[in-house]
């Protein structure tokens, strides 16, 4: 294996150039590490932008009454917060991690389709530039919620909706290309001897995520195209007055939307499945069942969409089918949680920042899973539906799920990316502030939701006042804390204790066999994995 | 790591313990119907199942995090798979889920049984108010938010039922199976009252069914729960449940009022009367979009002050109010409002805020206009 580490230095592949100078390095790059970094920076910028919109929302909801913004603008904030966080922050962050890590994990020199990789990234700034610009247009930006139900988003939408549709198309094209690239890379560029069942789980979960994306992003493109036709070309897909069906919109949207939920969480499952064994110094428990559980979740994600629509009046048999199918998802998800806990059991644990975020991930994501199970019970959902209980639920799966998964990944691989160790004290502070802030913000939402507070309202009765104030305080705390993360990352890029090739003694995987920081070109000669045991990808101990 | 979440949980428990005050309500209401109590029981059952699973799983996890740390000199074990436990923890959750699905199915079948209602009420969602029609009774009315603007804008202290109060509540009799036929006139709304465990989307072009049978008289409050535009947060649902006798009296009164309104159409109106009635009706029916001062919120909601329609030919003005403007948020008010209110509103719009056209539209004019269309 050591021959691989410095292959391009020792064997003199001088046709390998370093990065280009200046702006063209970033504009024209086809290097998976550069593109990965751009994706991650873009995602963080969007995270701050979407986060500041959340701050506006929480500031308005700090007290009953209208203080800071008017309802029209409030609706634009909730809509844009959702769209930016889903499509701008979480999804690009995982594509960024995939770009950086998948070639390093499977021993590939780069992504399979490097030029398309560049294009799929640069579509994003265009898409979000377009989307955010709608806020400054006459009539304001999208104000119909991130789920943009017709006919509120068609007949009754502000004129800027056409720009929104185009922005969604661009994001969709970008995601589809990114997914094709990941799938092509994993299926074609694995090092010799790296069979599918030797792949790290992050690669596995991304492979499955890639297929989910390819399957459902065209459906999203379809639904926004139908909107466009309704708005500008006189069709009536979603207009009852013209013989159309507003509920059709919801079926098509959620056929995209539910797998989308798993698109945002499966890669985090994969990352956590690398980090927990590393800091428990013990192999992942039940690798095979983890792979099967991920596949089962992905399959089930296609047949549960109407649980978002329990109150639209679908027939009893439909209601029962979607209730049962949704409850079934708890089984493979439970298997994953049990496997993580068993991995920790009798390990030799330390709690550096990646592990802290991963442990919080398991606990808080499971709490989000519990409320998900409650929401699956259709009769009970008649009480929960469209209340803050739902808001609490999906923020529990997305913030400590997707976002904590991304933070854990960032801390885990920062030494590999920058060649420096990050400041562990500050990172722990970042974790605890995020942990407390996040729970303070989202836990009380369960209570106001159960008490009956609908979501997406700018003002509320006094009976919801106390918990809303607590939520807002928690949200401000969580929001401010993320500037600390920015500081930690910049500090780590600029300097810090040099990181060895494998800074975590329990870590496994090929990415730790290249120096830190990872050279601009890696694995120009693929490593040979033939002798590695299954389930234990990467060099064995020592 | 293992200490902090407990402290945090402790704070939460303390908050829950202090929840005697209504402002700290942490749970769903058991409600006032058989269905709502069954739903509440389902909710608590699944909640406690989750709590038990959580305590077990997190217990093992915290124990492990306490005992199996490198700082305690723990050497890592090397086990990494066991097919038997994988099967076990696939099958046990499956059995728990089946156990949960049985009562959920039973409840759902009961909730879906809308047969043999004793009273039918059509509920229609509008931006941003509810319309109730007692089928076969010739009684119908709109239900608008009654909270004064000053309370929303923090210029006056907020009342107990802030944002949960309406001018005309839905009135239904106690102990009667009431079926709701729920639909919408513009965008999707959702009619929800937690105390009844009823929540059903109001969808244009669809009629959804739901039902309730309430055990005790009282006033039960809910809100629209599907984002329906600007004033989504300002269209509450209030249900007033009366004894069967009181309900009969109320219904008779409403029928008389409906008759009286018809007579008003043929009455001779003066400008002052129309302006006074128009201002009031405008505030409830029009001001949400076109604003109290007629300045609107362009471009979605055009200004009426100085608008070509409000100062232009009368027929066009009556036409747009009666028939709406297709493809925009302007609804057809011809069926929503009485001839009297439409006439008053148009008169008001043509003569308020400096639109001093000076002409007057009478209820008879509106009726003539409508009849000419048919």
From TrEMBL, chain A:
InterPro entries assigned to the protein according to its UniProt record, in alphabetical order: Cyt_c_oxase-like_su1_dom, Cyt_c_oxase-like_su1_sf, Cyt_C_Oxase_1, Cyt_c_Oxase_su1_BS, Cyt_c_oxase_su1_dom, Cyt_c_oxidase_su1_bac
A GO term from the CC aspect: plasma membrane
Enzyme Commission no: 7.1.1.9
Pfam (any one): COX1
Domain Cytochrome oxidase subunit I profile: residue ranges: 26-530
Pathway(s): Energy metabolism; oxidative phosphorylation
SUPFAM superfamilies (alphabetical): Cytochrome c oxidase subunit I-like (SSF81442)
Topological category with respect to the lipid bilayer: Multi-pass membrane protein
Entry's transmembrane regions: 38-59, 79-100, 121-141, 161-189, 201-229, 261-279, 291-310, 322-341, 353-378, 390-414, 435-453, 473-494
Example GO BP: electron transport coupled proton transport
Localization: Cell membrane; Membrane
GO molecular function, one term: cytochrome-c oxidase activity
Start-end of Basic and acidic residues biased regions: 530-542
Cited CDD domains: Cyt_c_Oxidase_I
Spans annotated as Disordered: 1-21, 523-542
UniProt function note: Cytochrome c oxidase is the component of the respiratory chain that catalyzes the reduction of oxygen to water. Subunits 1-3 form the functional core of the enzyme complex. CO I is the catalytic subunit of the enzyme. Electrons originating in cytochrome c are transferred via the copper A center of subunit 2 and heme A of subunit 1 to the bimetallic center formed by heme A3 and copper B.
Family according to the record: Belongs to the heme-copper respiratory oxidase family.
PANTHER family: CYTOCHROME C OXIDASE SUBUNIT 1
Name assigned to this protein: Cytochrome c oxidase subunit 1
Organism: Pseudomonas mangrovi
From TrEMBL, chain B:
Cofactor needs: Cu cation
Every Cytochrome oxidase subunit II copper A binding domain range: 116-253
Documented EC number(s): 7.1.1.9
Protein's cellular compartments: Cell membrane; Membrane
Main location: membrane
Residue ranges annotated for the Cytochrome oxidase subunit II transmembrane region profile domain, each copy included: 20-115
GO biological process, one term: ATP synthesis coupled electron transport
Catalytic activity: 4 Fe(II)-[cytochrome c] + O2 + 8 H(+)(in) = 4 Fe(III)-[cytochrome c] + 2 H2O + 4 H(+)(out)
UniProt feature coiled coil, ranges: none
Gene3D superfamilies membership: 1.10.287.90, Cupredoxins - blue copper proteins, Cytochrome c-like domain
Keyword hit for Metal-binding: yes
EC class (word): translocase
GO CC annotation terms, alphabetical: plasma membrane
Pfam families, per the entry: COX2 (PF00116), COX2_TM (PF02790), Cytochrome_CBB3 (PF13442)
Residues annotated as transmembrane: 46-66, 87-105
Molecular functions (GO terms): copper ion binding; cytochrome-c oxidase activity; heme binding; oxidoreductase activity
Stretch forming the signal peptide: 1-22
Origin superkingdom: Bacteria
Keywords: Copper, Electron transport, Heme, Iron, Membrane, Metal-binding, Respiratory chain, Signal, Translocase, Transmembrane, Transmembrane helix, Transport
Cytochrome c domain: residues covered: 273-353
Membrane-topology annotation of the record: Multi-pass membrane protein
Entry function: Subunits I and II form the functional core of the enzyme complex. Electrons originating in cytochrome c are transferred via heme a and Cu(A) to the binuclear center formed by heme a3 and Cu(B).
Family: Belongs to the cytochrome c oxidase subunit 2 family.
Protein's recorded name: Cytochrome c oxidase subunit 2
Provenance organism: Pseudomonas mangrovi
């Amino acid at each position: 294996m050591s021959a691989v580490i410095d292959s391009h230095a020792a064997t003199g592949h001088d046709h390998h150039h370093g990065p280009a100078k200046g702006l063209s390095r970033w504009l024209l790059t086809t290097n998976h590490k550069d593109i990965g970094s751009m994706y991650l920076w873009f995602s963080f910028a969007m995270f701050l932008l979407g986060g500041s919109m959340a701050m506006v929302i929480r500031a308005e909801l700090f007290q009953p009454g209208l203080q800071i913004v008017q309802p029209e603008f409030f609706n634009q904030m909730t809509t844009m917060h959702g769209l930016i966080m889903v499509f701008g922050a979480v999804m690009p962050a995982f594509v960024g991690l995939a770009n950086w890590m998948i070639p390093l994990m499977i021993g590939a020199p780069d992504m399979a389709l490097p030029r398309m990789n560049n294009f799929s990234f640069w579509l994003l700034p265009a898409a979000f530039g377009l989307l955010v610009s709608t806020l400054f247009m006459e009539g304001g930006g999208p104000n119909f919620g991130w789920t943009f139900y017709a006919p509120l988003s068609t007949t009754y939408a502000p004129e800027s909706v056409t720009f929104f549709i185009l922005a969604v198309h661009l994001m969709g094209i970008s995601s589809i290309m990114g997914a094709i690239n990941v799938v092509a890379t994993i299926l074609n560029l694995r090092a010799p001897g790296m069979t599918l069942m030797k792949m790290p789980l992050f690669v596995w979960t991304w492979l499955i995520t890639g297929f989910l994306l390819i399957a459902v992003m065209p459906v999203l493109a379809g639904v926004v195209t139908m909107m466009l036709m309704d708005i500008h070309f006189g069709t009536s897909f979603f207009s009852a007055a013209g013989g159309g069906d507003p509920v059709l919109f919801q079926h098509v949207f959620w056929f995209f939307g539910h797998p989308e939920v798993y698109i945002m969480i499966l890669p985090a499952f994969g990352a956590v499945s690398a980090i927990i064994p590393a800091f428990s110094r013990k192999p992942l428990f039940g690798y095979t069942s983890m792979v099967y559980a991920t596949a089962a979740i992905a399959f089930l994600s296609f047949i549960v969409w109407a649980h978002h629509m329990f109150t639209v009046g679908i027939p009893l048999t439909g209601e029962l089918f979607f209730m049962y199918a949704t409850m079934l998802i708890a089984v493979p998800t439970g298997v994953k949680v049990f496997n993580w806990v068993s991995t920790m059991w009798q390990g030799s644990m330390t709690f550096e920042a990646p592990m802290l975020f991963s442990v919080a991930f398991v606990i808080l994501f499971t709490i989000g899973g519990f409320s998900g199970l409650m929401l699956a019970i259709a009769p009970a959902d008649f009480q929960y539906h469209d209340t803050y209980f739902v808001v609490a639920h999906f923020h529990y799966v997305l913030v400590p799920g997707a976002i904590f998964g991304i933070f854990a990944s960032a801390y885990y691989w920062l030494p590999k990316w920058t060649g420096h160790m990050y400041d562990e004290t500050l990172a722990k502070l970042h974790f605890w502030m995020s942990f407390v802030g996040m729970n303070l913000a989202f836990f009380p939402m369960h209570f106001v939701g159960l008490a009956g507070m609908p979501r997406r309202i700018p003002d509320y009765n006094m009976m919801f006042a106390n918990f809303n104030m607590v939520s807002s305080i928690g949200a401000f705390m969580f929001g401010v804390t993320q500037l600390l993360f920015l500081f930690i990352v910049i500090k780590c890029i600029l300097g810090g204790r040099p990181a060895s090739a494998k800074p975590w003694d329990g870590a496994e995987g090929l990415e730790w066999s290249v120096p830190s920081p990872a050279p601009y070109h890696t694995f120009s000669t693929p490593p040979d994995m033939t002798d590695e045991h299954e389930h234990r990808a990467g060099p064995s101990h020592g | 790591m293992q200490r902090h979440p407990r402290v945090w949980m402790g704070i939460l428990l303390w908050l829950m313990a202090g929840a005697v005050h209504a402002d700290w309500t942490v749970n769903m209401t058991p409600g006032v119907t058989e269905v709502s109590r069954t739903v509440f029981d389902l909710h608590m059952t699944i909640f406690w199942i989750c709590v038990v699973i959580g305590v077990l799983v997190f217990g093992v996890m915290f124990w492990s995090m306490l005992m199996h740390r490198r700082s305690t000199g723990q050497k890592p074990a090397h086990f990494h798979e066991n097919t038997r436990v994988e099967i076990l923890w696939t099958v046990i959750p499956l059995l728990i889920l089946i156990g949960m699905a049985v009562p959920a199915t039973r409840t759902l079948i009961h909730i879906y049984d809308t047969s043999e209602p004793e009273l039918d009420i059509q509920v229609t969602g509008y931006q941003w108010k509810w319309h109730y029609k007692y089928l076969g009774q010739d009684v119908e009315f709109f239900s608008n938010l009654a909270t004064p603007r000053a309370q929303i804008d923090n210029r006056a202290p907020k009342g107990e039922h802030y944002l949960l109060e309406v001018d005309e509540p839905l009135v239904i009799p106690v102990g009667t199976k009431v079926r709701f036929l729920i639909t919408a006139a513009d965008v999707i709304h959702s009619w929800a009252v937690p105390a009844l465990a009823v929540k059903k989307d109001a969808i244009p072009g669809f009629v959804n069914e739901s039902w309730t049978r309430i055990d005790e008289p009282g006033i039960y409050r809910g809100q629209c729960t599907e984002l329906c535009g600007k004033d989504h947060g300002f269209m509450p649902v209030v249900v007033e449940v009366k004894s069967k006798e009181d309900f009969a009296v109320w219904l008779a009164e409403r029928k008389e009022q409906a008759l009286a309104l018809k007579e008003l159409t043929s009455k001779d109106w003066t400008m002052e009367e129309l302006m006074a009635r128009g201002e009031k009706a405008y505030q409830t029916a029009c001001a949400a979009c076109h604003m109290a001062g007629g300045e609107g919120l362009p471009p979605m909601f055009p200004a009426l002050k100085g608008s070509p329609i409000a100062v232009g030919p009368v027929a066009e003005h009556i036409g747009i109010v009666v028939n709406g403007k297709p493809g925009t948020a302007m609804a057809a008010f011809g069926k929503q409002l009485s001839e009297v209110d439409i006439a008053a509103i148009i008169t008001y719009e043509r003569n308020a805020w400096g639109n001093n056209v000076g002409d007057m539209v009478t209820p008879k004019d509106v009726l003539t206009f409508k009849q000419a269309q048919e």
